[in-house]
């Protein structure tokens, strides 16, 4: 795929300075670009690279002053970063555009598949599944009985969706992620063994959710494990049965949320965080990476850190003293020695 | 699937009060149920919902006193919770019942498959594999050369079982779990590179084991990585080479057990726990979430917490003081100041 | 596969004492071996087992003194451990040797596949993919458009390689691992939602890299996420977008490295470690399991521990005092009481 400076300027509503016919076929950072690349300059810190870059085209802000000769063709746009992001997105959509049903696939005769679908080879679509319009179901995806997938959703290679689960519109789910495996529920028996508690609920994922690779969301014991509209989950995350994650909450990789916990809206949760079961986390909470949250957070919009999680600033103060603990102990010993010497302590 | 109150009462050995012909086609919690649902009341805390629920049928304890009019048909059973659990399990078995071999599959001519098997499309069953009776092998499962799967075992979509591994009877393994990948063994060389140590052992999983999704159990260097009878493992767990996990031990999500460590029987290990290699953990140990265990636990039945893991109550005491560390330091400084002022310290 | 003592001695350049025609068909530890097994004795600690083992053949060091009768046939080799490792490796290569393309597979007509390839059933190889010589692509592997796989590389069942990613020679990647899923990049919007930042870079894996099962390496936003030559990654690891991991670095299971962080060469990182984004870790750093690294490590070859990670010996000293915190507080209270009593403090 090749584009001329003229074509790109048209796409981003910009103006060309230099050769309008120069062609590019890749995107690159301004400091790393080679000939044939399109790049952009937004951060003034990188301005020096404008004069040395090997990029063939550079998009810059409308009002940028250029005071020395530049090799590249320049495209001036209102906001260079936004213009470049738009191009990235267009490029990506073109790259990932595919339609049609490859062979072999397994599609149960009762399954309904919307318009313009891509179904990759070796995908498995079971009985009574409903898939919306413009979906991309990559190879090796498994969609169990009676599951529903909304319009414009992409499931990358190897995603598993168990029976009865529901995924909204415009979702993107990356490879190896499992939606709807059994919740971890076992009743201890008198002989020391455990009896499984059947998990007959489902997972309900609302619109505009993105989920990374190899994440697991367990189905509810009864009812639904719920991922609300606009949630973004990273890779290798554990979401246990009957959890609910509120709108537009973002969770980084390798965090785990135990059963029946309810996370509020607009929360930001770092990587490797653990949250115990049966609590709730207020809207707008910010939880630092590796924290362990063991009780309900009721106040909205606060920052938390550590195990057990405490308010961020208190945690930072304790952390600083922790690093001085050996010195603290020595000072205490000195006082004890002194008071012993003075015969005040014995 | 629809059932009448009469049919359900027969299944759970109960008696009907109200319309025996009312039909239900789903299960729900009493506080969330809609018309057409079957629910139950066991915990007295929820008794109020009996009078407001929209459930069509509610199973209650034999001896429950009902003093106001109730909309739903009532089924009295010896133990409402047990009766409901039995129904859940029956329902689930019906939902997941499937038999037969779909197309296309890859089954090596030398593989032996027992009676009443379900083999989903795109399953791969290699040379000399032996699969017992009544197994369910879902789509995209891979079973390597010479592996053995016991009777009544279910491998959900996308499970991988490497060559030579052995899985017992009545196992349930969820999607994306990998059994028998190479242990992480490399010998450092003088030039700074690493040489792989071949991992020629296997994984041995005994009867009645359940394993969640995207968990990994590595094969032994030599001999076997062993998961004993009745063990329950959650999602995203790491079990390294030559580990042994004792009977009826339960491990929550995202925990990791390093090489050659031996976990006792009836242990309960929380989520995100790390256990170093080459140690042993006594029977009945309870290890709190996010703990880091760095030495052998020899005493049975104790509770542990923290990194490095310490007895639970000691850890709780240290934790409390930790949150007061800045105050502690201030008090120490005051004493120092005082003694300086009094010219006792200089 | 059966081998005689004579054949084995020839392979390892050793000499036979006892029956040169005795046959073995398995490998086992000396203390666990049964008849028909080949074992070895290297560590003097295990010497006692030489006289009780049921192994049919034992490889020992050339100069070992044997002063009592031994049942097994003995093979003397220069270094018993090295000799045994060589045999392990040969055995493993024979076990895993396979060539040919099974059916059904999906191979795009434009894909190029080298000599002596094994392509398992249900593998998916997309447009313009290039696969080197002697590669083993197991069943259910997905290789996206334009990806490249070097000579002698093995991708076990269920590995996913997204479009444009590049994997070097002699790589081994275990089941369920995902290479090239989107980096976790979203721009917060004024209405509280997030807009995806397209991730158009790739993952570049150099030669001689081994990666465990269910690990995830995200593609770069632009440019490449880079895994340098000789790196060894364990299971369930998270490598975020634009990370670079230096030559011969080893990372244990369940660790996570956030975006744009650069890990040096010859580092050793324990399990469940978390490393924040946009920092660098010096060559030869050793990071203890469960550590949380939140700033750049500039000094080479040091040992780190804890959250936030501190120099190992300082961390150990703080840890020891931490376990005595309740006692420390009590001692401080005693001093305060004393000074109160003496009317020095009020």
From TrEMBL, chains A, B, C:
Signal peptide start and end residues: none
UDP-3-O-[3-hydroxymyristoyl] glucosamine N-acyltransferase non-repeat region domain mapped to chain residues: 21-90
Gene3D superfamilies: Hexapeptide repeat proteins, MurE/MurF, N-terminal domain
Entry's Gene Ontology cellular component terms: membrane
Active site positions: 241
InterPro entries: GMPPB_C, Hexapep, LpxD, Trimer_LpxA-like_sf, UDP_GlcNAc_AcTrfase_non-rep
Alphabetical list of CDD domains matching this protein: LbH_LpxD (cd03352)
Domain of life of the organism encoding this protein: Bacteria
Mannose-1-phosphate guanyltransferase C-terminal domain mapped to chain residues: 101-182
SUPFAM superfamilies in UniProt: Trimeric LpxA-like enzymes
Keywords carried by this UniProt record: Acyltransferase, Coiled coil, Lipid A biosynthesis, Lipid biosynthesis, Lipid metabolism, Repeat, Transferase
GO biological process: lipid A biosynthetic process
Coiled-coil region: 318-345
Catalytic activity: a UDP-3-O-[(3R)-3-hydroxyacyl]-alpha-D-glucosamine + a (3R)-hydroxyacyl-[ACP] = a UDP-2-N,3-O-bis[(3R)-3-hydroxyacyl]-alpha-D-glucosamine + holo-[ACP] + H(+)
Entry keyword annotation includes Transferase: yes
Pathway: Bacterial outer membrane biogenesis; LPS lipid A biosynthesis
One Gene Ontology molecular-function label: N-acyltransferase activity
Keyword hit for Repeat: yes
Entry's EC annotation: 2.3.1.191
Pfam assignment, any one: Hexapep
PANTHER family from the UniProt entry: UDP-3-O-ACYLGLUCOSAMINE N-ACYLTRANSFERASE, UDP-3-O-ACYLGLUCOSAMINE N-ACYLTRANSFERASE 1, MITOCHONDRIAL-RELATED
Family: Belongs to the transferase hexapeptide repeat family. LpxD subfamily.
HAMAP family tied to this protein: LpxD (MF_00523)
Summary of the function given for this chain in its UniProt record: Catalyzes the N-acylation of UDP-3-O-acylglucosamine using 3-hydroxyacyl-ACP as the acyl donor. Is involved in the biosynthesis of lipid A, a phosphorylated glycolipid that anchors the lipopolysaccharide to the outer membrane of the cell.
Subunit structure: Homotrimer.
The name this protein goes by in its record: UDP-3-O-acylglucosamine N-acyltransferase
Species this protein is from: Parapedobacter composti
High-level lineage: Bacteria, Pseudomonadati, Bacteroidota, Sphingobacteriia, Sphingobacteriales
């Amino acid at each position: 795929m090749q584009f001329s400076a003229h074509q790109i300027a048209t796409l981003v509503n910009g103006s060309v300075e230099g050769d309008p016919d120069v062609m590019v076929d890749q995107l690159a950072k301004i400091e790393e670009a080679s000939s044939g690349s399109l790049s952009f300059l937004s951060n003034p810190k990188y301005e020096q690279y404008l004069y040395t870059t090997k990029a063939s085209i550079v998009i810059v802000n409308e009002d940028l002053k250029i005071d020395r000769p530049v090799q590249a063709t320049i495209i001036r746009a209102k906001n260079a970063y936004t213009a470049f992001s738009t191009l990235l997105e267009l490029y990506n959509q073109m790259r990932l555009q595919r339609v049609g049903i490859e062979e072999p696939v397994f599609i149960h005769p009762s399954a309904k598949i919307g318009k313009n679908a891509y179904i990759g080879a070796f995908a498995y679509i079971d009985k009574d599944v409903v898939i919306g319009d413009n979906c991309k179901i990559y190879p090796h995806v498994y969609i169990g009985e009676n599951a529903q997938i909304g319009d414009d959703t992409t499931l990358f290679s190897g995603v598993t969706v168990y029976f009865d689960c529901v995924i909204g519109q415009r979702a993107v789910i990356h490879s190896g992620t499992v939606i709807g495996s059994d919740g971890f529920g076992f009743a201890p028996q008198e002989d020391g063994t455990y009896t499984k508690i059947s998990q007959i609920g489902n997972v309900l994922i609302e619109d505009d959710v993105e989920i990374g690779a190899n994440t697991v969301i367990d189905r509810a014991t009864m009812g639904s494990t719920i991922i609300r509209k606009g949630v973004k989950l990273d890779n290798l995350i554990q979401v246990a049965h009957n959890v609910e994650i509120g709108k537009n909450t973002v969770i980084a990789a390798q965090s785990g949320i135990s059963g029946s916990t309810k996370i509020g809206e607009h929360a930001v949760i770092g990587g490797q965080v653990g949250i115990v079961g049966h609590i709730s986390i207020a809207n707008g909470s910010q939880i630092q990476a590796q924290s362990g949250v063991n009780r309900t957070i009721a106040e909205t919009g606060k920052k938390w850190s550590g195990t057990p999680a405490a308010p961020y600033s208190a945690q930072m103060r304790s952390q600083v003293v922790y690093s001085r603990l050996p010195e603290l102990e020595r000072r205490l010993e000195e006082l004890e020695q002194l008071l012993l010497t003075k015969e005040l302590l014995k």
